[in-house]
Structures are given as structure tokens and as C-alpha cells.
């Protein structure tokens, strides 16, 4: 695939802390944990960026800042030409663009699928095209069937999520995101909750998406996938980007000792 | 034991009892609809991120669940009139009293059902571009309805039984008619037994209908 020079998404100086929950009315306020410390990333159109790192390194939080499912404490988030969020960076503050308008252009696939259990497979996929894009029921359904066809789930369109296996659920979740015709896809540990033999299958789906030219940001523990499909790998640890570079180079010859240690531990 | 049953007295009063029953059903149903709607509103306020609203809703549920309906009904029918000069009909006072108590109960039922919907589903919905209101209506509410149906049904049965206290303020419901007829003919046992059987029958019918509805909803959603 070709990576253009056109920047589709950029995060600058992102910081985020999670406050601990106070226990009871008179409990002490526990110290906040800072999960992201002044992190900057940019993603170009057509690029597949893979974020790796140990648990608690902040990689999922960083991904969720990209469509503001998590709101940073500080930093600037830009998608295409619009500024989604700007705080503490010296510009105009606050949420600037219409969030819903931006989110529908960014697809997201989650570790736990998050399908709607009360809707059939087809209705899961067709909901947002109808409600958000304003498609008619007929249009939304035919578009959804096409997406289900693509992930091999058309035969299950009338089933409920409870009747599907984990791998099937994740295929439906991918179809659901793709039915919005997103400009960018975010994958948040999409294979971490799956059985080993199913993981390959979902990675294959993701590889096909990448091959079709989709811009993707993927948080994963699958180093093989990162090396093979990723254009660029970002290694995070303790809320910071430790190392980043072309996928094969980073996996083959990591420069930073922490990256080396991490790769040694999981390969 | 030399009490002789005389059920003919009950038959003679049947039209009055039927009128009372009809009034009981009207009060119960109106109060039920009000409580079901108000309860949902209170639950949403309780879950609001705005602390003041959430605290107010919390106070509402704690306060109105703590007090006996016996007190409210007198308080609202006589007290409110004394303080504000506002004259309520027995019907209105009954509906308000029952609504206050049962909306407080139901708000807790709704709240726990709403909170039981995994947050990930809402995230997925927001991520697709649906707003908060659309997410609530399309993703959360349909699941909540299925979850609360059993409780909503038993709450209706409780409201019908609770509505008997409206006899206190002279509303001519089934209970009031029973008391009146019993005193008239000195046939307390027969009349109160009849009233008990009528309440029992209504509750059985309501639970049956509820069970049917529940199975219906379950079948269409899993």
C-alpha cells in the first residue's frame, strides 16, 4: 500500500491522569495515576500504525483519545483539518468540532466486541448508518449486508450476538464499524479476548482491510502482525513513547533497551 | 360459633362494590403510569453527572420511600389544602400520594437496570457517532425495559393493594365501599372476605399477564 504525505490524524502533547475513587464520604482522595505524559503521534492517510507495549503503558488510553472516548487533560487532537480538542496548548480551548460528526468518520473495534445484545447482527450493523448517516432502512440494510458478506457473516445476519462465537462477534463488530465508511479505523486489542485459533482469523480480516488501503491504528500484542502489516510501530512504556520507527526495523533491531527487553519477553 | 353467614347482603351491594372496584382500578392505573414515568425521570437524574441533580434525586428516593403512604395521603389531601388553600379531589390526592411513594421505589429499579448495561455498549455507540440521547433510546432503554418488566408488574399489584388507603380520605374506592356496606348491614366478615377475594383475583390476573409479557419480551430479545 502507499502511504501518502497527507496527515489524517495528529495528537500533540497529550496528557491524561485517572483519579482514584474516593471510598465513602470521608475517605481520603487517592493520588491520581498519570497514564499519558506529553505524548504526540501523527498518522498519515493509508498508513498502518501499530502501538505495542506492556499492560498499563497507556496504549489503549492513547487510542481512545483519538476519537475522544477518553478526554485528555491536556493536549491537542486534530482529525483531517478540524481540531477536535485543544486544552493547555495556547490555542482556543475546549472541544471545537462536532464530536458526533467526527466519530462517525472514525471506526473503532474493541477487545470485548461491545455488540448490542438486543439487536440482530444485521441491526447491529445497520443502526448507525440509519441513525447517524440518515440512510433509509432499506439502504442501511443493503449496505450492512454487503459489509457482513465481506467478513463472511451474511449467513448469520438474523442471529443475535448471544448466539455467536467470539470470533464471529468480532467479525460483526468490524462490519459494524466499516458500514460507516470510516476514514480511519482504530483497533483496541481486537484479538486479546479470543481463542488462539480464532486470533489468526481476525488478524487476517485486519490484514485485508490494510491491503485495501484503510488507514489504521492498531493496539495489539501480536508482534508478528505488527511486523508484517504495520508500516510503523510505536513502543510505549509508562505513559510515554519510548521508541518509534518502521515496523521491520523496530522489531528486527530495536534501539532502546526497554524495547529490546519487551520484545525479548514476548517473542 | 353461632355466626350465620349471609352472602345475600353482599349480592345486594354488588353494584356499589363494582363501582368501588372501578374507581380503585382508575386510581391504580393512573398512579401506575405516573409512577412508571416519574420513576424513570428520577433514575436518570440520579445517574446524572451533575452532582446537584443526582443528590436531589437521591434525597427524593430516600425521603419518599421512608414514609408510610398512610401519612402522605392525609398530608396531601388535608395538609396541602390547609397550607395552600388548593383543593384537591380525593382522586387527585390519591394519585399523587401513590405516585410519590411508588416512583421512589421504581426509580431504584430503573437505576439498577440502567447501571447493569455494560459501559462498553455505550462506548461502541458513541464511537459510531450516536449522541447520548440516541444511545440511551436505541441501546440502553430497550434492554432496560426487558429487565424491569417483572418488577414493574409486581409493582402494579402492590399499587392496587396500597390504593386501599385512599378510603381514609373518603374516596369511594373498593375498600371504602366495603367498609360502608359492612357497617350498613353488620356483615363485616362477608364483605371483607369478598374484598379480599377481589384483590386476590386482580393480583393473580395482573401477575399472569406480566408473566406472559415477560416471556414475550425474552423470546424476542435473545
Widest sheet: strand ordering of chain A: 7-8-9-3-10-11
Give the class-level CATH name of chain B. Answer: Mainly Alpha
Number of domains of chain B: 1
- Detail the poorly predicted runs of chain A: none
Q: What structural class do the secondary elements of chain B suggest?
A: mainly alpha
What is the straight-line distance between the termini of chain A?
27 Å
**Mean pLDDT figure of chain A:** 90
Q: How do the helices and strands follow one another from N- to C-terminus of chain A?
A: EEEHEEEHEHHHEHEHEEHH
Put simply, the count of helices of chain A is: 9
Which range does the strand content of chain B fall in? under 5%
Binned strand content of chain A: 25-35%
Q: What CATH architecture of chain B do you see? A: Orthogonal Bundle
Keyphrases for this structure?
heterodimer; A: 267 residues; alpha/beta; 6-stranded mixed β-sheet; 5-stranded antiparallel β-sheet; 9 helices; 33% helix; 26% strand; globular; B: 222 residues; mainly alpha; MetI-like fold
Amino acid at each position: 500500500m502507499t502511504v501518502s504525505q497527507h496527515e489524517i490524524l495528529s495528537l500533540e502533547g497529550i496528557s491524561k491522569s485517572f483519579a482514584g475513587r474516593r471510598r465513602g464520604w470521608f475517605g481520603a482522595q487517592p493520588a491520581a495515576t498519570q497514564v499519558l505524559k506529553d505524548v504526540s503521534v501523527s498518522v498519515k492517510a493509508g498508513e498502518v500504525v501499530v502501538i505495542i507495549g506492556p499492560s498499563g503503558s497507556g496504549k489503549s488510553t492513547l487510542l481512545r483519545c483519538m476519537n475522544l472516548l477518553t478526554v485528555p487533560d491536556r493536549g491537542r487532537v486534530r482529525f483531517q483539518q478540524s481540531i477536535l480538542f485543544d486544552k493547555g496548548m495556547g490555542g482556543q480551548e475546549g472541544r471545537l468540532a462536532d464530536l458526533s460528526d467526527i466519530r462517525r468518520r472514525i471506526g473503532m473495534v474493541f477487545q470485548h466486541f461491545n455488540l448490542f445484545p438486543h439487536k440482530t447482527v444485521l441491526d447491529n450493523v445497520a443502526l448507525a448508518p440509519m441513525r447517524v448517516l440518515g440512510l433509509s432502512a432499506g439502504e442501511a440494510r443493503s449496505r450492512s449486508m454487503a459489509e457482513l458478506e465481506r467478513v463472511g457473516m451474511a449467513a448469520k445476519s438474523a442471529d443475535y450476538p448471544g448466539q455467536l462465537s467470539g470470533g464471529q462477534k468480532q467479525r460483526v463488530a468490524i462490519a459494524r464499524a466499516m458500514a460507516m465508511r470510516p476514514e480511519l479505523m482504530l483497533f483496541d486489542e481486537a484479538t486479546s479476548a479470543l481463542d488462539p485459533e480464532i486470533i489468526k482469523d481476525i488478524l487476517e480480516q485486519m490484514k485485508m482491510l490494510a491491503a485495501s488501503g484503510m488507514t489504521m491504528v492498531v493496539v495489539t500484542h501480536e508482534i508478528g502482525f505488527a511486523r508484517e502489516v504495520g508500516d510503523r510501530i510505536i513502543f510505549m512504556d509508562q505513559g510515554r513513547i519510548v521508541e518509534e520507527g518502521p515496523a521491520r526495523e523496530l522489531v528486527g533491531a530495536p534501539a532502546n533497551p526497554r524495547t529490546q527487553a519487551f520484545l525479548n519477553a514476548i517473542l | 360459633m353461632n355466626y350465620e353467614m349471609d352472602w345475600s347482603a353482599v349480592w345486594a351491594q354488588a353494584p356499589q362494590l363494582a363501582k368501588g372496584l372501578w374507581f380503585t382500578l382508575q386510581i391504580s392505573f393512573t398512579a401506575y403510569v405516573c409512577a412508571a414515568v416519574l420513576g424513570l425521570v428520577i433514575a436518570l437524574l440520579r445517574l446524572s453527572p451533575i452532582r446537584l441533580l443526582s443528590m436531589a434525586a437521591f434525597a427524593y428516593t430516600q425521603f419518599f420511600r421512608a414514609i408510610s403512604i398512610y401519612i402522605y395521603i392525609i398530608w396531601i389531601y388535608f395538609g396541602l389544602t390547609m397550607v395552600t388553600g388548593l383543593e384537591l379531589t380525593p382522586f387527585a390526592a390519591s394519585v399523587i400520594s401513590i405516585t410519590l411513594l411508588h416512583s421512589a421505589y421504581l426509580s431504584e429499579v430503573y437505576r439498577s437496570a440502567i447501571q447493569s448495561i455494560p459501559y462498553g455498549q455505550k462506548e461502541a455507540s458513541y464511537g459510531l457517532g450516536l449522541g447520548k440521547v440516541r444511545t440511551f433510546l436505541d441501546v440502553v432503554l430497550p434492554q432496560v425495559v426487558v429487565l424491569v418488566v417483572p418488577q414493574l408488574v409486581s409493582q402494579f399489584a402492590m399499587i392496587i393493594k396500597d390504593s386501599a388507603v385512599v378510603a381514609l380520605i373518603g374516596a369511594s374506592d373498593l375498600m371504602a365501599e366495603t367498609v360502608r356496606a359492612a357497617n350498613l348491614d353488620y356483615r363485616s366478615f362477608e364483605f371483607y372476605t369478598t374484598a379480599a377475594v377481589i384483590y386476590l383475583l386482580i393480583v393473580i390476573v395482573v401477575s399472569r399477564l406480566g408473566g406472559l409479557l415477560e416471556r414475550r419480551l425474552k423470546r424476542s430479545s435473545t
